């Protein structure tokens, strides 16, 4: 395939050399101008086609090389719901030494956090969306820290309850619910059933203004999210959930 690609590219270069001569003659010759327009279209389409073929060829070769390397390294394919890559959990602690240029974003989201204009909703969800590595978690950490350890009393008292929960690839509703409960102060909940967890979380949240961060969310399973958020109907108006996600 690569040999044929080289031949086709050589022909394309030969045809392209005619362009300079045609560029001059098209001014006085309408037929040359029409031929030149058609040639340009053909050249551009062929160029795109070549790029696509070259990419697919390179990708195929790379995939074959990776398969060979997999065998050499003794790696096996796992079947089932186990995540392909173990991600490092996050906490609310932030290293501010490497944080630059997030002031505007932080200020904009802070205004949303402090706003009680919820349009009739007791609970607002604020999404921080972006590709991996762009600083979604760091931004959420900065905001959370501002609300937890700020020298400004009005900020610290903006929410009655605060919790940070790392979610990751699989949305384990039971685990996330337990971690939310622990975050808002109920540590002894590991042996509770799902019903007990829901009822206890609703009781804990009832009448309180909540700030919850759900970091590194991947799942978009609507039924799971609806089940997870059932106890949150008892929160006080102005409660917020910050969700960081790549989706």
UniProtKB/TrEMBL annotation:
<dbReference type="Pfam" id="PF18052">
    <property type="entry name" value="Rx_N"/>
</dbReference>
<dbReference type="InterPro" id="IPR041118">
    <property type="entry name" value="Rx_N"/>
</dbReference>
<feature type="domain" description="NB-ARC">
    <location>
        <begin position="105"/>
        <end position="245"/>
    </location>
</feature>
<protein>
    <recommendedName>
        <fullName>Disease resistance RPP13-like protein 1</fullName>
    </recommendedName>
</protein>
<feature type="domain" description="Disease resistance N-terminal">
    <location>
        <begin position="3"/>
        <end position="62"/>
    </location>
</feature>
<keyword id="KW-0611">Plant defense</keyword>
<keyword id="KW-0677">Repeat</keyword>
<dbReference type="InterPro" id="IPR002182">
    <property type="entry name" value="NB-ARC"/>
</dbReference>
<dbReference type="Pfam" id="PF00931">
    <property type="entry name" value="NB-ARC"/>
</dbReference>
<keyword id="KW-0067">ATP-binding</keyword>
<keyword id="KW-0547">Nucleotide-binding</keyword>
<dbReference type="InterPro" id="IPR027417">
    <property type="entry name" value="P-loop_NTPase"/>
</dbReference>
